[in-house]
Amino acid sequence: MALLRGILRLSSHTNHVTRIAQVNQGSLYFLSTSVRHDARFCESALEAVKDITPGSKLLVGGFGLCGIPENLIGALLKTKVDNLTVVSNNAGVDNFGLGLLLNQKQIKRMISSYVGENAEFERQYLSGELEVELTPQGTLAERCRAGGAGIPAFYTPTGYGTLVHEGGSPIK
């Protein structure tokens, strides 16, 4: 996993998870499931996203349009990397935030809890160009937390008695 000032890129191997920070007699100890990695500082947003490849899964921070990684989204626009799966609580608006990546058709799949203010998102979804997985906000937050902690699955009663529970999938 790599944290890039607002975008957390998920990989199939969650090999760096710090579980507990403990203070003992003035010393700070970290208990971790793997070796500790040093922070990586980039000179530009473009440098920060240069190793993101087509088909990557990105966890994009922010709430609504507040706190989103605008500069990193702008850098992704320049790279033109596509077939992205984006996990975010929203899909931006038509000409701001993730809406810019949607306009260039760089996003193939959205995993999100709210998508109601983006006409291009709606158009792509209804025409079958964009895969969408709507997830309740609390479940989305827990999926992110569990994935970061290396927990492959967890139970939530949210989908009980729904199409998901019956084996169907609300992904179009």
Automatic annotation (TrEMBL):
Entries under SUPFAM superfamilies matching the protein: NagB/RpiA/CoA transferase-like
GO MF annotation terms: succinyl-CoA:3-oxo-acid CoA-transferase activity
Family annotation (NCBIfam families): pcaI_scoA_fam
Gene Ontology annotations for the cellular component aspect, listed alphabetically: mitochondrion
Gene3D superfamilies recorded: Glutaconate Coenzyme A-transferase
Name of the protein in question: Succinyl-CoA:3-ketoacid coenzyme A transferase 1-like
Record organism: Homarus americanus (American lobster)
The UniProt record lists the keyword Cytoplasm: no
Keywords: Transferase
